[in-house]
Task: inverse folding
C-alpha cells in the first residue's frame, strides 16, 4: 500500500549523535551491573534502563541507556566520552566471565521523530503507540522503536541498522516528516526536559543535574557509590539544573549572576536552555553581560 | 539472535588489556596461611588472584583457592611450592602487589597492598 504524505504534518526527525556498544556473553549483565548506578539485574528483553557511569569521585563520566534487545545488551552513550566509557566496559572483566565488548558505532543509528501528538507519527510509521514511557522497544519492519510522551510533545526513537537509514529517512520524508536541524532539536529537547551530551559529560554529580532517580544506593557498590551515599545522607548538594528563558539566545559557557555566583549554561536554543546554578538562586536572576533570565525547575 | 543478527559477528571487538610480566611479593604471614589452607593439596590446587570491575573505586580484588586452571593465559608464580596464578588480563592491575595476612579479630585476613592503586575504599577490597 502506498502511503501518501500527511497534509500539514508537524512531524520532524533528527538523527542523533550516539555511540553504540554491544555487550555480549552470558555474564554481560553481571559485569555491567558492577559498573553502573542502576540495578540492571532484572532487565527484561526489549526493556530499556537509564543509568550512569561515574568516576570514583562520584562525578558522571556519561549517561547510558542500557537496552536488552533479542537477548543482547546494547548500551547507547554520548560520542564525547566513548573512549572513556568503553575503556571502563572492557577492563575489569573477570577472567572466568564470558563478556565480549563490541563497537557498533558504524552499524547502528538512532533517529528521533517528534510532534505535538502521537497520531501523526502513528500514521506515518503505521504503528500503534501504546506504551509511552520510553522503557520498551518494539519491533517493526527492519527497526525497533520506543515512544515517549513528554511535557509538550510525543517522541518516537527509532533504532535502525546504519545501512537502512537512507531508505528509512527517504520514506518518512515522502510521508511529510521534515529533517530537523540541531537548533530545532535542541529547542524541542529543552522544552521537554531532555538532557544533552553536554550535561552528561561535563563531570557533574548526578544530583546536580537532577538524576538522583537513576542512582540506586541499595544495589551495592559501584564506582562513585561512596560519594553518592555521603551526599544523600548529608544532603549537601549545592547546585541544581534549571530551564531558563532569556531575551536573547545565550552562548554556552560560564557566567556570573548578580549575586556573584557561577552560572553554567550547558544547553541553549531559541532564547531558552539549561543552566547549572547554585540552589539558592531565586526564580529571576541577572547574568553579567546578558541581563535578566527567568528560571524554572525541570 | 541480537539486534544486528548475524552482522554482529563482524563488529570490532574491544580489548584494552595490556599484558606484562607480573612480579608480586608474598609476606611470610600470608605464605604460612596459604600453606595451612591448602593442607597438602599444593600439587593440584593453587591460589588465583584476580581483579574485576566494581567496588567504590573501580576494581575489586578476588582471591580463590581452586584446582589449577589449564588455561595458558595465566602467569604462574611459585612461592615455596605454593603456586599463585594471575591472569594475563589482570597483569597490569596486579603487578607489584604485596600480599600479607593479618591475624586480627577486626579486619583480619588476606590484605593486598597495590602500588598501582591511586585510591582505595574504606573496606580495602576496592581500588582504582
Result:
Amino acid at each position: 500500500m502506498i502511503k501518501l504524505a500527511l497534509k500539514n504534518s508537524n512531524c520532524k526527525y533528527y538523527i542523533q549523535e550516539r555511540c553504540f556498544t554491544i555487550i555480549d556473553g552470558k555474564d554481560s549483565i553481571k559485569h555491567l551491573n558492577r559498573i553502573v548506578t542502576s540495578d540492571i539485574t532484572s532487565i527484561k528483553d526489549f526493556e530499556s534502563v537509564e543509568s550512569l557511569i561515574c568516576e570514583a569521585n562520584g562525578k558522571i563520566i556519561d549517561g547510558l541507556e542500557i537496552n536488552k534487545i533479542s537477548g543482547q545488551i546494547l548500551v547507547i552513550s554520548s560520542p564525547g566520552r566513548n573512549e572513556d566509557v568503553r575503556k571502563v566496559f572492557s577492563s575489569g572483566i573477570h577472567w572466568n566471565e564470558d563478556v565480549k565488548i563490541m563497537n557498533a558505532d558504524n552499524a547502528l543509528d538512532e533517529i528521533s521523530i517528534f510532534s505535538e501528538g502521537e497520531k501523526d507519527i502513528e500514521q506515518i510509521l503505521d504503528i500503534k503507540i501504546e506504551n509511552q514511557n520510553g522503557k520498551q522497544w518494539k519491533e517493526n519492519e527492519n527497526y525497533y522503536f520506543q515512544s515517549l510522551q513528554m511535557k509538550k510533545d510525543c517522541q518516537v526513537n527509532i533504532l535502525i541498522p546504519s545501512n537502512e537509514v537512507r531508505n528509512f529517512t527517504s520514506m518518512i520524508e515522502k510521508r511529510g516528516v521534515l529533517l530537523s536541524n540541531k537548533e530545532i532539536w535542541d529547542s524541542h529537547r529543552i522544552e521537554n526536559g531532555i538532557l544533552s551530551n553536554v550535561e552528561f559529560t561535563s563531570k557533574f554529580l548526578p544530583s546536580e543535574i537532577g538524576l538522583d532517580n537513576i542512582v540506586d544506593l541499595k544495589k551495592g557498590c559501584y564506582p562513585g557509590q561512596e560519594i553518592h551515599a555521603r551526599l544523600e545522607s548529608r544532603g549537601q548538594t549545592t547546585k541544581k539544573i534549571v530551564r531558563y528563558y532569556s531575551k536573547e539566545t545565550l552562548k554556552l559557557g560560564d557566567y556570573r549572576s548578580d549575586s556573584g555566583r557561577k552560572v553554567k549554561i550547558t544547553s541553549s536554543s531559541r532564547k531558552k536552555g539549561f543552566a547549572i546554578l547554585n540552589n539558592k538562586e531565586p526564580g529571576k536572576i541577572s547574568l553579567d553581560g546578558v541581563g535578566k533570565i527567568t528560571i524554572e525547575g525541570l | 539472535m541480537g539486534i544486528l543478527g548475524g552482522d554482529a559477528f563482524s563488529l570490532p571487538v574491544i580489548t584494552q588489556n595490556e599484558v606484562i610480566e607480573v612480579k608480586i611479593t608474598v609476606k611470610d604471614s600470608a605464605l604460612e596461611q596459604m600453606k595451612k589452607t591448602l593442607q597438602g593439596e599444593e600439587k593440584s590446587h593453587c591460589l588465583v588472584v584476580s581483579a574485576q570491575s566494581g567496588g567504590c573505586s573501580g576494581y575489586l580484588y578476588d582471591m580463590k583457592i581452586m584446582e589449577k586452571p589449564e588455561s595458558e593465559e595465566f602467569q604462574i608464580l611459585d612461592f615455596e611450592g605454593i603456586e599463585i596464578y594471575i591472569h594475563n588480563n589482570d597483569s597490569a592491575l596486579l603487578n607489584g602487589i604485596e600480599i600479607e595476612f593479618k591475624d586480627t579479630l577486626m579486619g583480619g585476613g588476606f590484605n593486598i597492598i597495590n602500588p598501582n592503586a591511586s585510591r582505595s575504599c574504606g573496606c580495602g577490597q576496592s581500588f582504582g
User: Anything to note?
Assistant: The mean pLDDT of chain B is 88. Residues 19-127 of chain B form a domain with the Hypothetical Protein Aq_1857; Chain: A; fold (CATH 2.60.300.12). Helices of chain B lie at 28-38, 91-94.
